[in-house]
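User: structure tokens for this one?
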Amino acid sequence: MIEHGSGAKVGSGANAVDEHTTEVDDNILVVRDLHVSYATRSGSVAAVRGISFVVPRGKIVAIVGESGSGKSTTSQALIRRLASGGRIDSGSIEFEGRDLGPMSERELRSIRGGRIGFVPQDPSKSLNPLMRVGDQIAEALRLHLKLSKAEAATEAVRILAEVGLPDPDARATQFPHELSGGMRQRVLIGIAWACNPQLVIADEPTSALDVTVQRHVLDNIDELVRRHNTSVVLVTHDLAVAADRADYVAVMSNGEIVEQGTTEQVLSAPTHEYTKKLVESAPGLASKRLTPSLTVLGEQQQSSAGKLFTHTRPAQPAGSSTASGAVAASAASSGADAAEATNILEVSNLVKTFALRRQGGGSQVLRAVDDVSFVVPRGSTFSIVGESGSGKTTTARIAARIASADSGTVSFDGTDVTSLSGEALRQLRRRVQVVYQNPFGSLDPKMSIEKIIAEPLRAFRVGDRTHRAEVARELLEHVSLSPTLAQRRPTELSGGQRQRVAIARSLAIGPELIVLDEPVSALDVSVQEQILQLLVDLQVQFGLSYLFISHDLGVIRQISDHIAVMRSGKVLEAGTAHDVMSNPQHEYTRELLEAIPGQRAK
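Assistant:
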């Protein structure tokens, strides 16, 4: 048992609060045996099943779990704002000694925003696009603190300064769309803390942010907790974030709290298998590059990998306009491959500019990619890391010949492909494939999984319908999905499963290079680890080369052989993964490394 304050106790692996030792003076929030369900067409579905925990005054309690674990439902239940169809079936939620359950909506409105603040996950959906951000903070102040319009406007500017927005007087007059994602999230934090609440519930407040912006936002929360002695319930899927910021951690799975205790106890000596998996999977807590699994190494030795793509490799030599270029795993079958270039991809002095309109008329030129050069050695992973707006995705699109550069060259397998067009460019697509960040957006919701995977084969008229279906099912097995999923639609799969389908589709035509643009940023940490391990295994099986794009050096560290760090369109630093990670030369690289969550737990 673990003591919270001077009396409340929480079992490290149980869901019960010791009611006899809980003292309201020490705990701002006490949750006992909470059950929440949702009404669906097929009946009632339990989302939260008998959870209990306490939140001590002035402390941060993190509720950690993957998508579907029930953590966001818990956060919504705490303020009685469940999504449509949701209801609290039983249990109690005591805030400052009063049960919120029996309260009327009018009573709850006086507590929400005033004494309990809430920071939602997505600022683009939570801020009024038609109101200036200063007015949105002032609205809460006028409603709960009864300030005059002038007083609220002045206080709103002070709050924007407190949460770290530069030039707060100017920011107060701007609309949400005129601010960056990190700035909008800070506005939400400012609204949550505007009325000096005793408790703030933050539901995934940084999941969509770059690591450095994430650190600044979490630093803001830490500072506000220290300054105002506010208690915080931090809901997150990232155990590394909880490791850095929380005093206590409760781990949720399938609607239950499977383990809870002090952060140090949960991280250093987890007792539940699910917690152990989260600890092992968290990129910020991992320190080693992933290696191929023993099973995959055994398959490679048996030369079974190349068999799948014999149908995609024509007899023409590599580099010709009609060559598809099968994966390197089957390269031994052709003597022409002896002339393969050492580097699968070379980009030299790329420049890409965009014209941006300015308020009041006129325009300015943005150099999104500014004299960028690098090479990708065959069979390796070259990663480009940087924050949003750094130019990394634009660079990757040019390298894949999805976009064109203003100047500079792109060479693939020793051949200049910068100016390819028509059929020659179409044939290059057989050798270079792309996997995007959001698999749901890149998969046709009307098509079956089998047809999605076989789509490249149909486009290049490879095989008949029976053969394409066979290849699709075989690819499902290669990405660790059951062939029984072949007739399902993307909406019937989880995010991790959809990303595996996207990877399988990219493999269908037998590429040599795959460009992966933030392929795991939208996934839970344990699913992230599974996808990264899958990519490492597939690379060995099929001799693939990767150009990997990410904003997260914690992820980059697990998969990279070489790394380039980009900012404002320029490569600031490049080298082997070991050199960049262990001995960064540029201050910005050091800042990115310091921003990786989970380091305080080491």
